[in-house]
Amino acid sequence: MQYKITAPSSLKGTVKLPASKSISNRVLILNALSYSDFEVENVAECDDTQVMLKVLDSDDNHFDIKAAGTAMRFLTAFLSKIVGEWTITGTERMQNRPIRILVDAINQLGGRIEYIEKEGYPPLRIFGSALQGGELELDGSVSSQYISALLMIAPTMEKGLTLRLKGEIISRSYIEMTLKLLHEFGVKSTWVENVIRIQPQEFIPREYRVESDWSAASYWYEMVALSNEGEIELLGLNKTSTQGDSQVAEIFTQLGVKTTFTLEGVKLTKTGSVTPKLIYNFVEQPDLAQTFVVTCCMLGVPFYFNGLQTLKIKETDRILALKNEMKKLGYVITDKKDSVLVWNGERCEPSPNSAIATYEDHRMAMAFAPAALKMSHILIDEPQVVTKSYPLYWENLKKVGFSVE
Predict the structure, then answer these.
(1) pLDDT tens digits, residue range 384-394?
(2) Which of 287, 335, 338, 381 does the annotation list as catalytic?
(3) Is 80 exceeded by the pLDDT of residue 315?
């Protein structure tokens, strides 16, 4: 399937954003660990979260989580402490996303997980049992989802968990989100320098309503930045959010978008005040990288983005994907050390009528579609990938005047 996206001359409207996938998936695990009778309210209606719900409500012992990376990491840890024998697998891409670090960590803490096919990768056979816990050392530069997965089951371990993080800690905001949510479910923790400690303790069941997704908001910031004139209201966002991607509001001030918080969410308005060059370290917000790469190129703003070391193990190799697809639009981006993306203004001949490949990656589709605001139109291949985190994305675009054919 392919969509042709054509943009309106001006943007104005109100958008109900999807609920946060990051919060939904954590709260569902914590809700299950607390044996709660409460249903989590406003759970994200996206592929990743629906997969999580299906597993947690299932009587089966074999689970296919498709392309849901968060579900793979969180459920691997969760199932390792649920007595029984479980298997978990996913798409071909998921079976090529590494998981050895998490498996080794769980096995070191008294669990037993085996690889069914390829060493270091799903599918996995998990022999669930009570976990001993204890002390563990991990490189702070690994995916924060591994760390969050371990922290959420830490209170159930016989000795609790003392986690020492070596070197640079990336995506710190996601670890902080996990600890804050644990606290809201009654779990105390300490984080002093590079050591996180969680003692064995009981979860406290509670009612919970999930807030809207700041990552999804980033595409609307992009649209306002690229519009001739724009004013968009986004519903359900909190000023005091636990989501690291809420930083998008601050970063976009440099690209001409003003954020005004309202009782219902935020109002975005175009200011036209744009920085001559954007330099930013995305180590805390790697999921925003695609949004800012496309926005800066379309605005003609050179950039230097570092802290992108997790991009190669996301839904696709996002560094390579961005270089390939921006070249189709006539922009030559370079990378360094697998963690830096640079654009110094270099252009090349664009490929006429060439469609943007999405690589089974929802964020490729959503970040590139707004480029239509600076072009006659843009073609997006396999646009249905947005269901991973934002199923109503294309419908929402239509509501504010985009043509989606």
Answers:
(1) 999 989 999 99
(2) 287
(3) no
Report the distance separating Cα 191 and Cα 180, nearest Å: 12
Determine the Cα–Cα distance for residues 404 and 401; give it in Å rounded to an integer.
9
Domain boundary among 198, 220, 238: 198
Mean pLDDT over 122-131 rounds to: 98
The arithmetic mean of pLDDT across residues 36-41, rounded, is 95
What's the confidence (pLDDT) of residue 314?
67
Q: What angle do CA 322, 364, 348 make, to 5 degrees?
A: 35
Q: Are residues 41 and 133 in the same domain?
A: yes
Q: CA 253: distance to chain centroid?
A: 22
Structural domain span for residue 217: 2-18+212-404
CB 55 within 8 A of CB 66: no
CA 215/CA 396 separation, integer angstroms: 15
Whether 287 is catalytic: yes
**Secondary structure letter of residue 140 according to DSSP:** T
Question: What predicted TM-score, i.e. pTM, was given to this entire model?
Answer: 0.88
205 in a structural domain: no
Cis ω on the peptide bond leading into residue 123 (within 30° of 0)?
yes
Q: What is the CA radius of gyration of the chain?
A: 21
Say yes or no: 272 and 362 in one domain: yes
The answer to whether residues 332 and 347 touch, using CB atoms and an 8 Å cutoff, is: yes
Q: Is 256 left (phi over 0), alpha (psi -120 to 50) or beta?
A: left
Does residue 326 share a domain with residue 258?
Answer: yes
Average pLDDT taken over every residue of the chain: 95
Quick one: 168 and 140 in the same domain?
yes
User: Is 51 inside any structural domain?
Assistant: yes
Question: Are 25 and 14 contained in the same domain?
Answer: no
CA distance 254 to 266: 17
For CA atoms 294, 299, 300, 304, the dihedral sign is: negative
Q: Give residue 282's pLDDT.
A: 93
Instruction: Give percent above pLDDT 90 in the chain.
Output: 90
Residues 191 and 65 placed together within one structural domain of the fold: yes
Q: Is the pLDDT of residue 301 over 90?
A: yes
Checking if the pLDDT of 93 tops 90, the result is no
- Site of tokens 């330099």: 279
User: What amino acid occupies position 105?
Assistant: A
Q: Give the domain CATH number at 293.
A: 3.65.10.10
CA dist 199 and 184 (Å) reads 16
